[in-house]
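Lest this sound abstract, we let one protein speak, letters for residues, whole numbers for local backbone shapes, and leave readers to judge:
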Amino acid sequence: LGHSFVKRLQRDMLSNFDARVDANFKLQGSALVHLHGIDGRTVANLRSFDLQVVTSISPGVAILEIGTNDLSLEAPEVVGLAIEELVRLLLDSFSVRVVGVCHVIPQILNHHVSVALDDIPNAFCWRHRNFSHPAKNVYLADGVHLNPSGQYHLYRSYRGAILKGVSFL
């Protein structure tokens, strides 16, 4: 679940942007993957408008790509708290058994989320390693969204996050 990164990756996967990519993250038999992303999505909007997706799918694991859009509106501490509350809601009130929260690529929020999730069983933070110090340009001209190389790195990173989440089950 998340913002435009999830939506764009889903769109690119449907267009077969890379021969190495599989719509189910090459996890046949171990997981069924659903992507849901909305441009500009904030934590509050996800909570208000997207939880019906969680209800309809009933995932055992939810990976969240959220928080980046919030940083222009709120301080990192406030966004971190909102993410923590969302994680607790998913674990306590929905069928979700494990929640992974991806570190945002602007790294200012990551420490706050990591500390907040330390005390929550079955929750973890996931770092997109290839975006911390990318070896090559992975961004489009807008400097925010990912080019095809970046999309492939994001796909691989999400696959790792999904596998980590499944390992908790």
